[in-house]
Amino acid sequence: MPDSAPTDLHNWAGNIRFSPSRFERPATLDEAREIVAAAPRLRVLGSGHSFNAIADTDAVMLSLAGIEPEANINILNDTVRVSGWITYAALSAAVHRAGFALHNMASLPHISVAGSIATGTHGSGDRSGNLATAVAAIEFIGPDGELRTVRRGDADFAGSVVHLGSLGVVHTVTLDLVPAFEMRQYVYDDLPFDAAVANFDELTASAYSTSMFTSWGAAPTFQFWVKQRTADQTHPFPRANWFGAPLAPGPRHPIPGVDPAACTVQQGQTGPWHERLPHFKFEFTPSVGEELQSEYLIDRIDAPAALEALARLGDRLAAVTQINEVRTMASDDLWLSPAYGRDTVGLHFTWVREYDAVRPVMAAVEAALEPFSARPHWGKLFSMPIEEVRSRYARMGDFEKLRERIDPEEKFANGFTAEVFGGGAR
Question: Can you give the pTM of this predicted structure?
Answer without folding.
Answer: 0.95
